[in-house]
């Protein structure tokens, strides 16, 4: 752990560069960096292609986040939550901002972020009570500065609570729509779930929902963290598992109802995902 107070031309910052234990890296949500910065001049900050998830909250002033080709304006009380493997940078405006941030990672972090996006989590959001995030940030900062002999466990506990806040405070699916389109992203998800047995192509979705297929591909991945084909496969396999356990349909009939045919292909895909054949999966639950 390295704590740094930095007064420079562009910023006044107080940050901790944290080094977790090997145990924490392999098993826990772990801290990479936490800090607060006050801009003295407009400046740009970027660390793309990192195995890290970044949370930012704006305490005062304003600035801009550029993420996956999109531009987002942030002001006091706004928060951002992004995957640092993607291209991004942020900069203060002339209304010099003060921000707090957390970089974290761990074996479950990607799954948490994916679920956050699936539930309609926003890249930029304005929480009803930012004090909840402030309190959690302060707890993590205090722990990272301490000599507590189980602080990696306690940091994991607080980062988990932090992720719960993200899930709870940022879920506004009713407001998520396709820019320039006629249907919400939730309607696309519902359509995919209700037409599992049919052949679904990107071109067909593009025509049905009045949106360019390349834009739809990028938007869906940005919103939910997975591609349309990956999402469709997840839903199909989940439906197949339900039918294998609770219906008397044959394996071939189940594959057809899930839109994965012929039988040999359904068996192969199911085994790739679940590590077991459909027949063996059914026997396991009988």
What is the mean predicted local confidence, pLDDT? 87
How many distinct helices?
Answer: 11
Report the oligomer.
single chain
- The helix/strand class is alpha+beta
From the spread of the alpha carbons, the general shape counts as: globular
Radius of gyration: 22 Å
Low confidence ranges: 1-6
Annotation, overall tally of beta strands: 11
Biggest β-sheet description: 7 strands, antiparallel
Helical fraction: 40-55%
Percent of residues in β-strands: 15-25%
Ends: how far apart? Answer: 52 Å
- Strand arrangement within the widest β-sheet reads 1-2-3-10-5-8-11
Give the helices and strands as they follow along the chain: EEHEEEEEEEEHEHHHHHHHHH
Description:
The protein is an alpha+beta fold and 286 residues long. It is built from eleven helices and eleven strands. The chain is globular. Residues 1-6 have low confidence and may be disordered.
Characteristic key phrases:
286 residues, alpha+beta, 7-stranded antiparallel beta sheet, 44% helix
What can be said about this structure in brief?
By secondary structure, the chain is of the alpha+beta class. It is built from 11 helices and 11 strands. Strand 6 (62-67) and strand 7 (70-75) form a beta hairpin.
């Amino acid at each position: 752990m390295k704590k740094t107070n930095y007064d420079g031309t562009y910023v006044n910052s107080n940050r901790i560069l944290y080094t977790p234990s090997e145990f924490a890296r392999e098993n826990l949500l772990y801290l990479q960096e936490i800090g607060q910065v006050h801009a003295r001049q407009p400046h740009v900050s970027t660390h793309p292609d990192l195995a890290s998830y970044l949370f930012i909250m704006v305490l005062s002033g304003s600035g801009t986040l550029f993420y996956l080709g999109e531009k987002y304006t942030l002001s006091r009380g706004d928060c951002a939550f992004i995957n640092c493997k993607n291209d991004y940078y942020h900069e203060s405006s002339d209304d010099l901002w003060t921000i707090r941030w957390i970089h974290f990672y761990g074996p479950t972090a990607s799954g948490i972020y994916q679920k956050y996006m699936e539930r309609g989590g926003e890249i930029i959001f304005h929480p009803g009570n930012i004090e909840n995030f402030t309190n959690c940030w302060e707890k993590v900062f205090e722990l990272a500065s301490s000599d507590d002999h189980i602080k990696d466990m306690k940091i994991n506990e607080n980062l988990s609570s932090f992720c719960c806040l993200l899930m709870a405070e940022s879920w506004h699916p009713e407001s998520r729509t396709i820019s320039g389109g006629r249907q919400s992203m939730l309607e696309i998800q519902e359509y995919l779930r209700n037409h599992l047995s049919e052949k679904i192509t990107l071109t067909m979705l593009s025509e049905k929902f009045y949106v360019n297929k390349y834009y739809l591909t990028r938007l869906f991945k940005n919103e939910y963290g997975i591609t349309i084909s990956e999402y469709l496969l997840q839903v199909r396999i989940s439906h197949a598992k339900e039918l294998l356990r609770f219906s008397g349909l044959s394996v071939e009939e189940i594959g057809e109802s899930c839109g994965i045919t012929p039988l040999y292909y359904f068996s192969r895909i199911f085994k790739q995902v679940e590590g077991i054949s459909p027949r063996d999966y059914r026997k396991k639950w009988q």
